Amino acid sequence: MGIQIGLNCPACGGSLDMAEGENVVNCKYCSSTLYIEGDAGVTTIAFKNKIQRTVAEQAKDSWFRKGFKARDLPRSAKLLEVYPIYLPFWYSNIRVMGWICGYEERTYSDGKGHTRTERIPKEEMVLQEYRRSEIACDPGDLGIKFLRNMDGESSFEDFEMIPTYEATTSKDDSLDRMKAQALSDARRAANVPHVTFEKVHVMPRSLSMVYYPVWVVRYSYRDRMYIYTIDGVSGQVISGRAPGDPLFQGLAITIGTSVGGLIAAGGLIIASTGTENSAAFGIGGVIVGAIITFGAYLFFRHGSEIIEGDFSDKKYGLGGLGNIGKEIGNMVGGGF
């Protein structure tokens, strides 16, 4: 006879029933094998490593050719070591519910150039569920901080054969951070620009320890050491470092500054015409030109190493123009 213990499966969210005194249970919804740690209310799940060494090695063929990496990387890189590990993650299913009230401002103008601003009341109900994760150990130079996948076959058989990192972080601290992130995401989704009142509850529905298989591949290129990691379930590249190509850096700074300069100059010309809406279009052109120029400069400066993943020293690339735009917008808004 099973008893309801108030826990949920971290893989599918289904409720768990288990007999008193048991610490291993199979989820009746998705067949995941779970381990219950004492009375701490934390379920533990380990995903089966489905990737073989040859697959982890072959992943380099497509990853080396992706993006702006050195063109001779596929033929010049030398594999040094390839091995699997298990990384621990705190994983929580968090429900956020309540109300957020406030207003948004809308500006109207008439044909004579007169403007007026109205405050439009907004009242948004919040009812969202978020799945959040955070690595439970020091990942070192792996560049992995969050879970990318929760679909896979669960198994504890690999624990005796594959090195496992021990959890070293506080579950309470991790849960607090995940709750704060879920609350922030819920506020953003509510889209109330000016909040005057809110009554929001953040309720964790489950907290789990997930052990996830990762393949680590270290390689050398022109006497320098690099690394990339492979998802042990899906076979996809999770993170990595690779050398950039000087040709791409040179093209970025040359083309980027030319195009950005032309757009910015066009914006100044439009702004100087004095016609209706010319100032707005002109400023927009200057901002776009600055974004392109600044993005090209950052890629030229940091493009000698291509970084993918959750590395703390990850720099802007050509894919980070959105963040660059926000920075420039902040500078413009603050009067530079």
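The record above closes out task 2.4. Task 2.5 opens with a second protein, given below.
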Amino acid sequence: MPTSRATMPTKCCPSQKVVGYVISEIVVVIFIIGLLCSMAAMNAVSLLGRNTFKAQANDLVETFNKAWSTARSSERRYEVVLDISNQSYMLREISGANLADVLEEEIISQKKLRDDLRIKYVMFDDFENTAAVQGAAMFRAGHAGWQAGGKIVLVDRGGNEYSLIISRLSPIAQLKNGDVKFAQPQDDVPF
């Protein structure tokens, strides 16, 4: 007696098992790829954060080097103004006799620091500290070099300190790890 299709038991053919197995493998592979992509994205964000600090610090160093080299090769005077309270800095050409007046046409560049880099304090080489004032610190460069040297202590997002050294004896501003100490002046100099 012929059996009808409706009453025949359905059997899973081997090709259906293979399709189910392939689909489950695809899901696992997609999950692994997603996991690897998220790990790569987290590493990229971390690396970008470090590079953002480095990029800002290098830009600040280059601003000092540009002021010195341009002043050295010309008869003009330049000033790098660090505004500690606003966490910003400016490079300007000094054109007038009154140094307090900053004219719009004197400003060469002006930048605000982001959270990746903060100015903690500035210490001049005569040991005048701007941390108590929290105002502006001015480094002036002329044909003979820097009027005053000093260090600018910078802090990254993780709280690590770096010192940007401006020396009257060296034309190149240098970024060093840590809060670099100045040599203390000697009271008794045997001359």
